[in-house]
Write a structure and sequence with these properties.
Radius of gyration: 33 Å
Order of helices and strands: HHEHEEHEEHEEHEHEHEHHHHHHH
Strand order of the largest sheet: 2-3-8-5-7-6
Number of strands: 10
Number of helices: 15
Distance between the termini: 33 Å
Number of domains: 2
Largest sheet: 6 strands, mixed, barrel
Helix content: 40-55%
Structural class: alpha+beta
Length: about 425
């Protein structure tokens, strides 16, 4: 049999109140909780989506783990790549050469980060090959001095596929006329666009052997790039490799090389959670006022229950049930609505844009022109529990006041 406190509390919630204003405030509190929960789920899902999308775009060019020599040169790179690739957490390893260069085409001059790669191996550790706008990484053949540019970099130097550009290496060579920079003409064989301005405007890819010849590295490289099965284990893998790989090496991972960026995104997500959680807090505060007015309205009923033998704790439970039910209904509506919107952001946002004739993320301004969404169960559970706890806490003071009602005083004028 259900306790009578639960039955009375449910009856008070369902009953048509004599005071319609209390009913209106109850509905407003319920809707406030629902809207707050819904907004929290949708916004955190979108923030998770942006974080995931940006991480994918950055790590599509950068490496999960990077191994290099302290002087920027790695001689025994084949042994390092072999031993690192044998690690269970590592999917692939690829050598690279990283150097600065100056690209010139007619009157256009632009600085660039020049990366020497082995096309077949680079496709295993990076996603540049899947973001090619023109040409292919396979066109970077040794000895032919081909070059693949980012879209913004190609635009800055005014170079199209098939045209020649001049690469000026800062390392000079001594001549009777003085120290002169090394100059080599390259043919643009491809253009890529990964969606990150840092790479699209500053990265030029050439074949590893061509880079070794231009920068006079012999058989050496700058380092080895690794791709992991689980990118979130990068710090642990990097730490383990420092103890297992031979030689004096510098090993870093993506969480360190882009730490400030991802920390800023996480801080922004936390701030948004706090700001939007205030909506739920305000709705819970409205719940306090609703129950206080309900207690005042139900004082005669409380007095009658007390005269029939109800204890103060029982009276308190009745109003805790009434207030908690409002919070539970609001939370459930908010969770269901938030999940539905978060799972259909790609449909809802374009519909709103068409309805109001606006564009939230213009393609000519933002590289991510569509709102991504990544709904995570942990966020949904955290938001729901927070809403329920706030709703429960909001019922304590009004319920305590109800338990303090004096039956004699309440029935004096009845």
């Amino acid at each position: 049999m259900q306790p009578y406190e639960l039955l009375v509390g449910l009856r008070y919630t369902r009953a048509k109140r004599r005071n319609h204003f209390i009913s209106f405030i109850s509905m407003a509190s319920m809707l406030g909780i629902a809207i707050g929960v819904m907004a929290l789920i949708v916004v955190l899902s979108v923030m998770n989506g942006f974080q995931k999308e940006l991480r994918a775009r950055i790590l599509g060019v950068a490496s999960h783990v990077q191994i290099s020599g302290f002087d920027g040169r790695l001689a025994n790179w084949r042994e390092v790549a072999r031993r690192a690739g044998a690690t269970p957490d590592v999917l692939a390893a690829a050598p690279y050469i990283s150097a600065q260069g100056l690209l010139a085409n007619q009157q256009n001059v632009q600085g660039a980060l020049v990366r020497g790669v082995v096309p077949q191996l680079e496709d295993q550790v990076a996603d540049i090959g899947s973001h090619m706008r023109r040409g292919s990484l396979a066109d970077l053949k040794p000895g032919q001095f081909g070059m693949v540019l980012g879209t913004e970099l190609a635009h800055a130097v005014g170079a199209h596929v098939g045209e020649k550009v001049v690469l000026i290496a800062p390392q000079g060579q001594v001549t009777p006329a003085g120290i002169l920079p090394r100059i080599k003409q390259f043919t643009v064989v491809g253009v890529f666009e990964v969606g990150m301005y840092e790479y699209d405007a500053g990265l030029a890819l050439i074949n590893l052997e061509d880079a070794q010849k231009l920068y006079r590295l012999g058989d050496e490289v700058s380092g080895v790039r690794l791709k992991l099965k689980d990118l979130f284990r990068a710090p642990e893998v990097a730490r383990d490799l420092t103890h297992t790989l031979p030689g004096d090496l510098y090993i870093t991972d993506w969480t360190r090389s882009h730490a400030n960026f991802f920390r800023a995104v996480q801080i922004e997500k936390n701030v948004m959670f706090i700001i939007l959680a205030l909506i739920v807090a305000v709705a819970a505060f409205n719940l306090v006022s609703t129950l206080v007015m309900a207690v005042t309205d139900k004082q005669p009923d409380i007095a009658i229950l007390r005269t029939l033998g109800a204890t103060p704790v029982s009276i308190m439970k009745i109003f805790v049930v009434q207030g908690s039910l409002i919070g539970v209904i609001g939370t459930v509506i908010g969770v269901i609505g938030g999940i539905l919107i978060a799972l259909n952001v790609d449909v809802v946002v374009p519909a709103i844009e068409r309805l109001f004739r606006v564009q939230f993320l213009a393609k000519d301004v933002y590289y991510i022109s569509e709102l991504p969404s990544d709904l995570q169960l942990r966020d949904v559970v955290t938001i729901a529990v927070m809403s329920l706890v706030l709703s429960l806490l909001a019922t304590l003071y009004p319920s305590w006041r109800a338990s303090r009602v004096n039956p004699a005083e309440a029935l004096r004028y009845e």
